[in-house]
Design a protein that fits this description.
60% helix, 13 helices, 0% strand, mainly alpha, Endonuclease III, domain 1, Endonuclease Iii, domain 2, DNA-binding
DNA sequence: GCCCAGGGCACTG
DNA sequence: CAGTGCCATGGG
């Protein structure tokens, strides 16, 4: 079990929120779904699979292609051929693999209604849905209190606080030390990613970082 | 040309 | 259970 870090974690959240503002993840095109009578939560799920190890900008191109074809929904994915789907999502990379994952997902879960009844364990059985994707779906599409861990989160937690661990360990660390608040879960994950994209990159920009005074990495404590 | 990005799976030791 | 190879595009 990791040491308690309630105050430290909350302070980090507040600092990031003040610095970067609300991120409002996960983005969905509400207008598109209003016009086409589809559910924006299905776009969240589709985006979650498309963004696996991929730049969000590339995912946006793929989502635009799906919108152009009016198939940005579970039903739309189900009714398009695997070949055409793969071509449409090509900008997101790993496109043949992701086309299979999407096709499989909408077979297991015909609609958001079916998905609402699922559990984390059930999601993890679906081929193409690992821990992070499952937690993204649970948190951002289904509004469940399930904290998302990704490569950025692992990197920031290690550099800043010297905390290491596998996925479930880090997930528990956040969930045990944060208030059970959907907004906090959603924003905190998004803010961590934003911070790592801007400053805490693989080659970190420590000199310009507003967290350096409290960072173990910067202070050579790792 | 190189490196990286909002991972996951299959296989190996 | 840790390590490795593979999947692939687009931007810096």
């Amino acid at each position: 079990m990791l040491r308690s870090g309630k105050r430290e974690l909350i302070e980090l959240y507040k600092t990031l929120l003040k610095e970067y503002g609300e991120q409002n993840w996960w983005p969905a095109d509400e207008e598109y779904h209003r016009v086409h009578g589809t559910d924006p939560r299905e776009e969240v799920v589709i985006g979650a699979i498309l963004t696996q190890n991929t730049n969000w900008k590339n995912v946006e191109k793929a989502l635009e292609n799906l919108k152009r074809e009016k198939i940005l929904s579970f039903e739309g994915i189900r009714n398009v051929s695997s070949y055409k789907l793969a071509e449409l999502i090509k900008p997101a990379g790993f496109y043949r693999q992701k086309a299979k994952y999407l096709k499989n997902f909408v077979t297991v879960y015909p609609s958001i209604g079916e998905l609402e009844k699922t559990t984390r364990d059930e999601l993890l059985k679906v081929k193409g849905v690992g821990k992070e994707t499952a937690d993204v779906i649970l948190l951002y599409a289904l509004n469940r209190l399930s904290f998302v861990i990704d490569a950025y989160t692992k990197r920031l937690l290690f550099r800043l606080m010297g905390i290491q661990g596998d996925y479930e360990t880090l997930k528990s660390f956040f969930e045990n030390n944060l208030p059970k608040d959907l907004k906090v879960y959603k924003e905190f994950h998004a803010l961590i990613d934003e911070h790592c994209k801007r400053l805490c990159k693989k080659k970190p920009l420590c000199e310009t970082c507003f967290l350096k005074e409290r960072c173990r990495f910067f202070n050579n404590l790792l």
